[in-house]
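Escalation from tier 1.

The customer reports that the assembly of two entities below gives different structure tokens on two consecutive runs. Tier 1 could not reproduce it. I'm attaching the input and our single run for tier 2 to review.
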Amino acid sequence: MSRKVSGPEIERVVQLLARLPGLGPRSARKAALTLLKRRNELLLPLSEALATAAEKVVACSVCGNLDTVSPCSLCQDPRRDRSLIVVVEEIGDLWALERAGVVGGLYHVLGGHLSPLDGVGPDQLNIAGLIERARTDEVTEILLALNATVEGQSTAHYLTEQLAGADVVVSRLAQGVPIGGELDYLDEGTLAAAIKSRRRL
Amino acid sequence: MSRKVSGPEIERVVQLLARLPGLGPRSARKAALTLLKRRNELLLPLSEALATAAEKVVACSVCGNLDTVSPCSLCQDPRRDRSLIVVVEEIGDLWALERAGVVGGLYHVLGGHLSPLDGVGPDQLNIAGLIERARTDEVTEILLALNATVEGQSTAHYLTEQLAGADVVVSRLAQGVPIGGELDYLDEGTLAAAIKSRRRL
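Tier 1 run:
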């Protein structure tokens, strides 16, 4: 990457693409070439789609989701159960749950997990907003749908403490064998959780 | 991907990003989220860089390289040896050679390799332009820097035949053990080529 071989305009596209997750310098160059070779079908549409998104998409002031309106269309949806707030780390997690269509309630996006080593404390996450929402009368349950990682679980632990004062049930996702999972390939922690939380048939 | 959970503006960005090489639906969503979360540092600059590239970047009428001028800055560079034309399949190959800084001559980008099964014959590649350039007096050598794949080598074979009438030396890249290569991990074809083309010390 030391020699700039393709002019500043192309180089700029490559450099910006290389900052996306999943694209290194090499795949960013490949992506840039694909864009340049497909100017009308891909390059111009993507440029315009990004400009439109930059202009219209905003963070929801209530839950932190991204949408063109704030409060977002999920928060505004009258069919949703307003007594349940599902707390997720990232918007990608919210999207995953929505794709699965398994949440009837509202969401709250923390914007990450607690990670003192990376300088992420409670003030860097959208926790104050969650506490405030939990204190409203209509909310009766807070489901902590955080990642089953050390960071996710310690964040869940912290939130449970913070929510102790609010009159809500705090719950977490079930842990156990994933659908399609083969016992032989699962880690000991998962197997232990699956045994401990076994269900009577 | 069946349920659209994030509004048409975001969904459009995801869909376009998913058409780039190296990005599937999942990584395209991750990339879109990164863009949206970093609106000013990444989303807007990328949108503008793509628009600029779409407006300014053109294919070089001589060699097929992409640049903001045609003939491109490589073709116009007076320091380059105009007697040597290095033929590559794709612009990415040209970039790789330029990054290595190992070519003193000019380039010619074919735009792919012969692949009858995919409907890519001689007319789909920039071969006529190469023959024309080879016939000019100043060109004395055509170096076929094509991929060491079956398609690349059969394209090289075809070009060698086509260039027989022109008064030029046709050469190809050396084949052998790559720098840092361990014999134990190399295929038989490479080892055979390295033995056959061995050099006296």
